[in-house]
Every structure is written in C-alpha cells, then in structure tokens.
User: What shape does this take?
Amino acid sequence: MGLTVSSIISEYGAYYEKSGQNMSRILKMITQDTETTKLMTQIKTDETIFKLAQGTINDLIQPFQKAFTAKGTAVFTPNKIELQHMKVDFEIYPDDIEATWLGFLASENLSRKEWPLVRFLLEQYLLPKMRENLELKVAFKGVQKDPTTDVAGNPEDVMNGIEKLLTLGIAAGTINQVTGIGALNANTIFDQVEAFHDGISQVYQGVPMVVCMSPAWRKAYFRDKRANGFYQISGANQIDDSIDFTPHKVAGLPSMSGSNILWATTKENMLHITKKGQNAGKFLIEESKRCVSIMTDWWEAIGFGINEIVWTTAGTKSGSGSN
Assistant: This one.
C-alpha cells in the first residue's frame, strides 16, 4: 500500500497524543522540478499520434535559355510523434495514521477521502514527485516499454526520452552526429563546446539555439572559461549562458545528470506534446470501504519536428560514459 508508518509507531508509539505537532514538523527533502520541457515548444492536442510533414525542394536556378526547361522537385515526407498514455495510481488506508503521532492528519469525518491527510499527500508529495519523475527519469532517459498486465511499471518506461530519440535518429541517418571533439574534459570543455558549435550547419549557426548538457558540464564550461582568463568575475550578473560570438546558449538540464552528451536544436523544433495534459495536476479520488484511491492519467510525448536540424555527440567518444 501507499502508506508506511511502521517506523513512526516504533519510535513514537501506536497511539495519538496531542503535543503540539502539526504539518510544519513533517519535513521533506527538495524534489526536482521539471526543467527540460520548459525549454520546448508546448503543443496541446486531442490526437494520440501528432502528425507532421517536412517539405524540401532541390536546386532551382539554371542558366537562361528561351525554351522552358523545368527543374526542381518539391518533396513532402511524414513525421509522426506518438503520444504515450501514462498514469498515477496511489492507494492508502488513512486509518493507519489515526492512532499514531500523525493522528492530527485524521478527522472525525466518516469519509476518509476528506481527511487532511489526503490533501497533504497530494500537495506536498504526489505532485512534486510526479514532476521529479518526469524530469529525472523520463524527459531524457526514458525508454518506452509496454506494460505487463496487472503489474505496476516504472517511470522510465512510459515514453522515449531525448537520449533515445537521438539514438534512433542517428541510426536512421537523420540526426547529425558531431564528431572529433574528444571525450569531454573539465579542462577543455570551453573549447569543446565551441567546437561542437562549429559542427553545426553554417546556416543554423546564426539561429538562436540552446546547446544542452548536464548541469555538471555547464558548471565546468563556466569554470574553464574563467580559467582561460576570458572574463574576471566581480558579480554573479557578469555570468551568462551565451556561447561567445553566437546567438547560442548553454543549458544544464537536470534530466541529463550523469550524461556526457551534448545536443542542440532550435526551440521551435523541440516539441512537448500533451493530450489531457491538465490531468497531470488533477486527481480523481475514490473511497471504498475506508480505502482511498487516488488516480489520474494523461498522454504525453517529446519529439523533434525535423530531425535534420538536430546536432549531437551521442554515440561518439565525447558522448559516451558519464560525468
């Protein structure tokens, strides 16, 4: 079940004694908020497969002659992003806390779903933990797996994250692999990020873009830049995320913690697509024979509009291992 108070009972006893305890005495560690999807273009849809098309046209200009000599072909190719259905199912017996130190979260109300405990868990634990799961286990590291019947699955199984999308795109020859910058090193990361930028198509080097990396490598990038004497820091406002002489910036994503991969594309090309996305912050609460069930479900996907304008070191020496 979703409520364990055995250690509270062991330490404080199997009874409730009012001694001034309240919610402020229930401490919790910080949970990671969602950061990766904030960088993306948000799309709401009623579809479970979001269908896109990419148009290209080949060369048109030719030497003049009076005769009409047709040249050029417009080609449209499909690109579909499949949303994945995900859910939260949580169940508790609120009576478990009444005869304990946590009894102040109980109530005289016969409806257990109306007890303060339920709202407290929703606001302080379930919602923050859902956002942390999405950031740390899904957004970058997720690999979609079909569920096993009647067995609860894992967060990382709900959908393909960015790392998997990069791997699939490289295998298909549609995502650009930047090679030759070597294994990332804290003493050379500043030059390596600039080398990665140089590996981006010339036409996109002048387009605003974010070069994504782990928070540890972002910190190392700034330290290496400082160590090379490019600026003297007298205040925090002197430090920004820009890559010199470009409209590009670096971003340290919590979802990429432990990764040595660099990747970049435009904001417009990074798509975060949701169906019934508002349900990720709403819950259906049901009560049956003193058991309270809390549930919600929604559809979600991360994808690229055009793989050909994504660049990465995934699959290279620099993108292997962890930092």
In short: The first strand starts at residue 41 and ends at 44.
